[in-house]
Automatic annotation (TrEMBL):
InterPro entries: Chitinase_II/V-like_cat, Chitinase_insertion_sf, GH, Glyco_hydro18_cat, Glyco_hydro_18_chit_AS, Glycosyl_Hydrlase_18. It comes from Adineta steineri. Belongs to the glycosyl hydrolase 18 family. The keyword Translocase does not apply. The lineage of its organism: Eukaryota, Metazoa, Spiralia, Gnathifera, Rotifera. This is GH18 domain-containing protein. One of its GO terms (molecular function) is chitinase activity. Keywords: Glycosidase, Hydrolase, Signal.
Length: 448
């Protein structure tokens, strides 16, 4: 290999530590249901949730399925332990980060726990979620101080690098689950700092709607609703991803959250429309949604938001099926993201008997669409995503009997055809600087 090429590769490796690699399929597992040993298409498993004790050490409660799973797992499959998840844990995390000595004790305890139980890394998930575990309180505790959070991230990074150097073991991985809402991203995270210390960031691109809202809306829309205004414009996956990339974060550092559950709302007035007054009735797992399809719910695909809803009487469920998931996976590829986080994989149809779509239809779909794909290092110049992809007969499209103005549903073909070039500018500039640097290097070598 030519020397300049080597130098160029080294330079490239500094610019794009994550691109050029395998597309990650990260599967979140909630611990109380046990891990299904056949989740073989996941590249990473995240086991939930470890706790921060009152003495600021990390502890976890895990059951035999995890041991069994690890004993039988593919050696390439990496297993993470997630900490956080619920309001109580987030309150504890705030306390832990409030003092240097608390934080240092925590950091060291993570290495011990991860190594003792043979985990490959940790995921800091201080995002309240309504999907896993007991329902959240209406006003969940959030990370109070974003600077402290960055310090924790840097301390963990240093600890794991030091430990790997000292012991000769593979370095422990560190990921962070961040909000998918622009306002929260601005106020609660130093994204540039977190992108430096974490191996990647899982974006919680779901739970956009829930019990905090008093209206019926889709909780994981890919695109904004036609005519959405103000903050509502930001409550979707595309807005979150575009916003994060616009801050200069390398897209390959981001993983798109793919929920395996829908959120059900009960309408509380005579208005039967999205945006109408409603109360949240909780989450519905994917496996149950397949049965709902079979028992007379009406499915409507929202052309603006690029996701389906189901309607029956005064109830409406915003959810994802294989059609919208396919659009989201393709979106992740188009945006050069590093992978997908399936949240949680417990709700996939592990035995293939509930949905008649084979075993693990969701994980398999991600695998199928990304099997020969490596995360691209090239700037975004490809044509926009073709959103007119015909659904593969996976579910029927039924015209709703709802009082929804037609334009609301079957609006214009929004969003995915917009050019993305503008948001990529800062990254292109960085890349140009490196290319100039490479040319200078080559020139120097010619001189020598
Ligand atoms: C893995 O994904 C492939 C491709 O989609 C699929 O054919 C296979 O059944 C999946 N395997 C498991 C164990 O889910
Ligand atoms: C993907 O790779 C496999 C094995 O390398 C190959 O057999 C298959 O044809 C490839 N599929 C596509 C769609 O390129
Ligand atoms: C988009 O996909 C559809 C369905 O696969 C196809 O009929 C159509 O020609 C495609 N459009 C473009 C512009 O590629
Ligand atoms: C899809 O539906 C059409 C019409 O209903 C049918 O002719 C075709 O065989 C179906 N394709 C698959 C793959 O099921």
């Amino acid at each position: 290999m030519n020397l300049e090429l080597i130098i160029f590769s080294i330079l490239l490796s500094f610019i794009n530590a994550d691109c050029g690699g395998e597309f990650k399929i990260v599967c979140y597992f909630s611990s109380w249901t046990g891990i299904h040993p056949e989740a073989k298409n996941c590249t990473h498993i995240v086991y939930t949730f470890a706790r921060i004790e009152d003495d600021n050490t990390l502890t976890g409660v895990w059951n035999n399925p995890l041991k069994e799973f690890k004993a039988n797992k593919d050696p390439d499959l990496k297993v993470f332990l997630a900490v956080g998840g619920q309001d109580y844990a987030i309150r504890r995390a705030n306390e832990m980060m409030s003092k240097d000595e608390f934080r240092q004790k925590f950091v060291i305890s993570t290495t011990k726990l991860l190594r003792t139980h043979e985990f490959d890394g940790i995921d800091l998930n201080f995002e309240p979620s309504e999907a896993l575990g007991p329902p959240s309180t209406p006003n969940p505790q959030l990370i109070e101080d974003k600077k402290r959070f960055s310090v924790l991230c840097k301390d963990l990074q240093e600890e794991y690098a030091e430990e790997a150097g000292r012991t000769g073991r593979t370095r422990l991985l560190l990921t962070i689950t961040i909000s998918g809402i622009k306002k929260q991203l601005e106020s609660r995270f130093e994204l540039d700092e977190l992108a430096k210390c974490a191996d990647w960031l899982n974006v919680q691109t779901y739970d956009y709607r829930g019990s905090r809202d008093k209206i019926a809306e889709h909780h994981s829309a890919l695109m904004p609703a036609a005519g959405a205004t103000d903050d509502d414009k930001d409550l979707n996956q595309d807005s979150a991803i575009k916003y994060i990339i616009s801050t200069g974060i390398e897209p390959s550092k981001l993983l798109l959250g793919l929920p395996t559950f829908g959120k059900k709302f009960r309408l509380t007035s005579d208005l039967h429309d999205l945006g109408s007054p409603a109360t949240s009735v909780g989450s519905v797992p994917y496996t149950e949604l397949c049965r709902n399809t079979m028992s007379g719910w009406q499915r409507v695909f929202l052309d603006d938001r690029k996701v389906p809803i189901m309607i029956k009487g005064d109830e409406v469920i915003g959810y994802d099926d294989l059609q919208s998931m396919e659009l989201k996976i393709n979106y992740a590829k188009e945006q050069r993201l590093g992978g997908i986080v399936i949240y949680p994989v417990n709700y996939d149809d592990s035995a293939g008997q509930l949905c008649n779509q084979g075993k693990f239809p969701i994980v398999s779909l991600v695998k199928e669409l990304t099997s020969n794909y490596t995360v691209s290092c090239l700037p975004l110049t490809t044509p926009p995503l073709n959103t007119t992809t015909a659904p593969k007969n996976r579910t029927k499209n039924i015209t709703p009997k709802w009082k929804i103005p037609r334009t609301e549903y079957l609006g214009t073909n929004l969003g995915l055809n917009r050019p993305h070039r503008r948001v990529y500018n800062s990254v292109s500039v960085v890349r140009s600087i490196y290319i100039i640097q490479y040319l200078l290097f080559s020139f120097l070598f010619l001189l020598v």
